[in-house]
């Protein structure tokens, strides 16, 4: 045989099989075929068995390295058992009548076979490692797998018309409590497998951990997936069933969306998911531009709030309350404005964000403190002073020191209690209702007036109002008569609310009155106090002081 050619081929095989990246299978096969021909081998075949027992029962996989079509007798066998018990066997055959191998050729053949066996083992192990890399202990693929698949799909241009989702089983801890841990696991598996069926072929599902999963499926299947997510009954014992549903954030990849990286999809489904968790109106929320803006805003507020407060960037603006009979200023509401980097940020931008946590409580006391400081100044300068109302968010209600805290600020500046009014919104829960009732009672006894803010929005009821000793009802602008087609009826209804409130001993003030026409309606309905653009917008303290000095319109 041509020694030179043999050495070249063998060296090439070694370099292919010890390559650090993926095996070049076609090149390996053609090099093996070349070597087989040189060594007069008619067929080379390798077997892989998970363990010796499977080898005994011939239950394994086989790889044909070369086959001339005339194998006859085995001339060499190499068998290796790996440290974890896998068995790899390589057999080489010669055709009938072929020249027997020389001693040196036998040696060379064995070298080639050892090379194959060792490297098959290596590739097998890397497959196992690969599996460990992409699967969790319960057999679900993990986030790394999800990302890899998305990258591969993007490369192949197969990401269009797909929908991605991040889901969480709703109240899964309750499910576990109700059916027990192991039945809970079964419920989870069954529910998830229904999700998988709904997604159809070619879909992806990976587990983030616990009862959190990410999905990717054809948008065509959206309706079916939504149906499963919105709830289904899952069997867990012979005849026991439990209702399971999910909270989900979704993102539908549009035709023009070029998904720069898998994280891009992830960010979107998480943003939508967090919105779904937050708002308890919709369990499934789709990612939109608006959600993204909210997220940016939320990040910005979180980032800048602490600095803003310590730099005194939050300013008190005052909006006069007017007695429409005398056209005089009878009070004002303190409203917060955030001036950051010369830009005025309206409350709608940051208050809801601060109300998600407890930062709002700090801001409310900051506002009360600044208001009291202003009033102190006016009193000391002998200026005319009117009662100022301060908004206290419901988020403060849980605090047992709330009343003491409010009073300590008012008293720190020795403000006559009648000059402060506290605006609170109604509550929906029983616990909050009790806290609210106690607080209003305490303030009442201390001579601090209280008003029901935003009356008419949400769950307002006169009955609820009756049970708490409020002083003022602030009628929200959304209930002001404004329907041109049904004006008369709306005015009558509004008038009833005003007189019912008066009958209960409450003062009424209408918020958001913008036009002279609306002002006339207020007169007609007997609503004597108004706060709105028709008189003034909220204004900085210096301007408000001028208004106080004038005192009327
Ligand atoms: P709110 O307590 O209902 O305050 C009244 C809102 O109506 C103010 O909005 C005011 O500027 C606006 N408004 C007054 N007159 C008119 C009008 O004629 N037309 C229209 N379209 N709007 C009018 P603003 O200042 O943007 O405040 C929005 C909300 O932010 C407030 O609603 C209140 O819930 C909250 N907020 C503001 N400052 C504070 C604060 O210091 N603490 C707390 N907890 N909430 C605050
Ligand atoms: Ca208010
Ligand atoms: Ca209001």
Structure characterization notes:
The chain is 46% helix and 23% strand. With 553 residues, the protein is α/β, with parallel strands linked by helices. It has three domains: 3-129, Beta-Lactamase (2-Layer Sandwich), CATH 3.30.450; 138-287, Reverse transcriptase/Diguanylate cyclase domain (Alpha-Beta Plaits); 305-550, EAL domain (TIM Barrel, Alpha-Beta Barrel). The strands form four sheets. Strands 12-13-15-16-17-18-19-20 form an eight-stranded mixed β-barrel, surrounded by four helices. Helix 17 (516-525) links the parallel strand 19 (507-511) and strand 20 (529-531). The radius of gyration is 39 Å and the shape is elongated. It starts with a helix and ends with a helix. The structure holds ligand C2E and calcium ion (2 copies). The site of one calcium ion has 4 residues, from loops.
Assign the CATH topology of the largest domain.
TIM Barrel
What class would the helix/strand composition place it in? alpha/beta
The number of helical segments is 18
- CATH C-level class of the largest domain is Alpha Beta
Radius of gyration: 39 Å
Main sheet strand line-up:
12-13-15-16-17-18-19-20
Strand content: 15-25%
Large-scale geometry: elongated
Ligand species: ligand C2E, calcium ion
Write down the overall mean pLDDT: 92
Number of strands: 21
**Can you tell me the CATH architecture of the largest domain?**
Alpha-Beta Barrel
Features:
binds ligand C2E, binds calcium ion, alpha/beta, 8-stranded mixed beta barrel, elongated, Alpha-Beta Plaits, single chain, 23% strand, 5-stranded mixed β-sheet, TIM Barrel, 553 residues, Beta-Lactamase, 18 helices
């Amino acid at each position: 045989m041509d020694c030179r050619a043999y050495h070249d081929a063998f060296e090439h095989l070694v370099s292919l099989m010890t390559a650090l990246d993926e095996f070049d299978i076609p090149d390996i096969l053609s090099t093996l075929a070349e070597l087989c021909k040189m060594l007069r081998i008619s067929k080379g075949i390798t077997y892989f068995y998970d363990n010796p027992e499977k080898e005994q029962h011939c239950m394994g996989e086989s790889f044909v390295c070369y086959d001339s079509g005339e194998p006859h007798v085995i001339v060499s066998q190499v068998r290796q058992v790996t440290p974890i018990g896998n068995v790899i066997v390589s057999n080489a055959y010669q055709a009938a009548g072929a020249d027997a191998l020389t001693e040196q050729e036998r040696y060379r053949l064995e070298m080639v076979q050892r090379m194959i066996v060792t490297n098959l083992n290596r590739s097998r192990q890397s497959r196992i490692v690969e599996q460990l890399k992409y699967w969790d202990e319960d057999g679900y693929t993990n986030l790394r797998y999800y990302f890899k698949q998305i990258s591969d799909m993007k490369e192949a241009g197969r990401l269009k018309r797909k929908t991605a989702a991040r889901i969480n089983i709703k109240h899964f801890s309750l499910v576990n409590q109700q059916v027990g841990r192991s039945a809970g696991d079964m419920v989870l598996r069954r529910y998830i497998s229904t999700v998988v069926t709904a997604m159809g072929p070619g879909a992806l599902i990976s587990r983030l951990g616990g009862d959190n999963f990410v999905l990717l499926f054809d948008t065509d299947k959206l309706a079916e997936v939504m149906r499963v997510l919105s709830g289904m009954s899952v069997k867990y014992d012979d005849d026991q069933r439990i209702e399971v549903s999910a909270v989900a954030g979704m993102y539908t990849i549009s035709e023009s969306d070029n998904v720069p990286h898998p994280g891009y999809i992830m960010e979107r489904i998480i943003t939508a998911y967090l919105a779904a968790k937050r708002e308890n109106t919709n369990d499934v929320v789709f990612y939109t531009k608006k959600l993204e803006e909210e997220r940016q805003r939320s990040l910005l507020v979180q980032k800048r709030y602490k600095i803003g407060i310590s730099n005194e960037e939050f300013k008190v603006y005052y909006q006069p309350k007017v007695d429409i009979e005398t056209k005089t200023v009878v009070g004002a509401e303190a409203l917060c404005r955030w001036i950051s980097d010369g830009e005025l940020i309206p409350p709608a931008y940051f208050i809801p964000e601060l109300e998600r946590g407890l930062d709002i409580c700090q801001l409310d006391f900051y506002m009360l403190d600044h208001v009291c400081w202003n009033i102190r100044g006016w009193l000391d300068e002998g200026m005319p002073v009117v009662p100022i109302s301060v908004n206290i968010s419901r988020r403060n209600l849980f605090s047992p020191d709330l009343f003491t805290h409010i009073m300590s600020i008012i008293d720190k500046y020795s403000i006559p209690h009648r000059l402060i009014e506290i605006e609170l919104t109604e509550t929906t829960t029983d616990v909050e209702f009790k806290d609210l009732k106690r607080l209003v009672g305490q303030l009442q006894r201390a001579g601090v007036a209280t008003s029901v803010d935003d009356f008419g929005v949400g769950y307002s009821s006169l009955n609820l109002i009756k049970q708490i000793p409020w002083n003022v009802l602030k009628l929200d602008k959304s209930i002001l008569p404004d329907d041109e087609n049904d004006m008369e009826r709306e005015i009558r209804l509004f008038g009833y609310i005003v007189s019912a409130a008066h009958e209960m001993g409450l003062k009424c003030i209408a918020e958001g009155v913008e036009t002279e026409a609306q002002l006339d309606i207020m007169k007609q309905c007997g609503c004597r106090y108004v706060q709105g653009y028709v008189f003034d917008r909220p204004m900085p303290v210096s301007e408000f002081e001028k208004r106080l000095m004038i005192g009327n319109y």
